[in-house]
Amino acid sequence: MGIWFTEKQTANFGITAKIKQTLATVKTDFQELEMIQTEEWGNMLVLDDMVMTTEKDEFVYHEMVAHVPLFTHPNPKKVLVVGGGDGGVIREVLKHKSVEKATLVEVDGKVLEYSKKYLPTIAGALDDDRVEVKVDDGFMYIANSKREFDVILVDSTEPVGPAVSLFTQGFYTGIHKALKDDGIFVAQTDNPWFKADLIRQVYNDVGEIFSVTTLYTANIPTYPSGLWTFTMGSKIHHPLKVKKERFTDIETNYYTSELHYACFALPKFVKDLTE
Amino acid sequence: MGIWFTEKQTANFGITAKIKQTLATVKTDFQELEMIQTEEWGNMLVLDDMVMTTEKDEFVYHEMVAHVPLFTHPNPKKVLVVGGGDGGVIREVLKHKSVEKATLVEVDGKVLEYSKKYLPTIAGALDDDRVEVKVDDGFMYIANSKREFDVILVDSTEPVGPAVSLFTQGFYTGIHKALKDDGIFVAQTDNPWFKADLIRQVYNDVGEIFSVTTLYTANIPTYPSGLWTFTMGSKIHHPLKVKKERFTDIETNYYTSELHYACFALPKFVKDLTE
User: Fold this and answer.
1) B263 and B149 in one domain?
2) Cα separation, A257 vs A247, whole angstroms
3) Which residue in chain B is spatially nearest to A42 when comparing CA positions?
4) ipTM value of the model?
5) Which of B32, B56, B183, B270 has the highest CB neighbour number within 10 Å of its CB?
6) CA A88, CA A111: separation in Å to the nearest integer?
7) Considering only CB atoms, which residues of chain B are within 8 Å of chain A?
8) Using the beta-carbon criterion (under 8 Å), do A258 and B265 form an inter-chain contact?
9) Mean pLDDT of A35-44
């Protein structure tokens, strides 16, 4: 049978993947980091026993967290990514020619280091001239920013460990302040099968601060339940009112301009979490 | 840790679920049947080591295979379900008041027997007055039918064991003949992450026989990759041209009239399989 990595997505359910070899096991200042070479998904980054990204299916998450808000905004120039030390979101952000500067604030420098080493197709974009990388606390960085960004993307882990503060209303208030007057933010907000209460709470919290609050989904096979949600808070622009001319030609493997609208059509039991 | 059931969805990847107890293990004339009580998903029907349905997430598959074609057809009266011995598709079909008769043709009587015993919320509808149940070979039943049905739904296992003949062009030709002049059929066609070639082949085969061929998706956590596809072949009616007035009020937990359209917006790498 060989060696298998198993993530318990709940106490009673999980996924399991055959391993070619373990590339690194590190205890960082913030979390346990593992880099695993799997047979099915290529190299896989695991933090605190949770799959963060894999070479084979990473495109779904990274495209969907970036392109939906970046095409909703008419002219995004300054973009901030909180978390996302693997560099995948930054790679997608840079596909938008309007972007002049993309800042990454990742609390754990080891995530950057090991991603550059073992996930080069994902982390390679971190060396781009338009990118500024800061190893810093995302919550504090947001708290110290004012009317600075067009788009803020929160690519955090699940709300355990270092990411707990990134799921609080105080954080969303800070994001609102850090955004320009027509700014947009998106946060990954876990899955509706096992974390319905979290989605409902974040949606309510964001709704109290932003005038346009929406939820959209994507299929990510290595994430719990395979159905992932993203919560968008926007000061003015509505993602469903984007005109077709806005979509420029970028290379993607999941996102399409058709899906831009369709991803907001929620399954009934997910829609119920927003009402 | 207790006892866990693991399905290898590929040679190198799978899901694993904690078991409360095994309710039945039977070798039928066609396949191995297991009924397992799980902690996470309730009772789970397993055929030849593959999860067929679970009490907790069955609604997604059953609603999506039934309501998309039944709302695309303007007035479905006679419906045939091939396979689907658990009864879930029939339950959804009966929510449509226009349906006068729903025929289920399941090759394995043991699936009916154990579903009635251990999956009563799914199989209960099989006792309805409008339902006719036949324990018979689906391929032959179709071959002997002519211009009889408004809608045919193929709720098969994956193309191994008894279901192999249900993924052939000969079968789709038979379905075309068994449908009335404005008939519609839908077949489950597995997932695009691990079975891309199968989807491409079925889509091509159906496209050669039906004038309107479309593909749509749904998220099913206990099915391989979590992203499931359905191929629809229709003689006249187009699923995206359904008028909003057509949608009658039925109780669902996944399907909505909005999703009826949105589920056809495919991720880029899935859309590529249809081109």
Assistant:
1) yes
2) 7
3) B12
4) 0.97
5) B183
6) 12
7) 6, 10-18, 38-41, 57, 60, 193, 217, 219-221, 225-227, 252-256, 258-259, 261-269, 271
8) yes
9) 98
